């Protein structure tokens, strides 16, 4: 029996090999078919642009708040091009 359901907010705790990955709160997007006897889920964070596939034993129930969509940051202003200075012959 699975511990988590689709739509639930969980915290991902990466294993030793992935300890530098972005751990934190994720929403379960889908339950995947079992792999090697382990329950597997697709998870997504609004802070990431892609989904991750993780085993159930790397997930714990989260009490954190996870927004549906992160507010988009204001784009940087376009750069401006300054006119080149020209030296006149009479100066």
Question: How would you describe what is shown here?
Answer:
There is one protein chain. The termini are far apart. This protein is mostly beta strands. The model has no long low-confidence stretch (mean pLDDT 80).
How would a textbook summarize the main sheet? 5 strands, antiparallel
What sequence of helices (H) and strands (E) makes up the elements? EEEEE
> How far apart lie the N and C ends?
86 Å
- Which percent bin holds the helix content? under 10%
Number of strands: 5
- Cα gyration radius (Å): 23 Å
Q: Which stretches are low in confidence, meaning pLDDT under 50 for 5 or more residues running?
A: none
Alpha-beta classification: mainly beta
Question: SSE layout and pairings?
Answer:
Elements: E1 9-12, E2 24-35, E3 38-44, E4 52-55, E5 59-61
Antiparallel strand pairs: 1-2, 1-5, 2-3, 3-4
Concise overview:
The protein has 91 residues and is mostly beta strands. It has strands at residues 9-12, 24-35, 38-44, 52-55, 59-61. The chain has a five-stranded antiparallel sheet with strand order 4-3-2-1-5, with no helix packed on it.
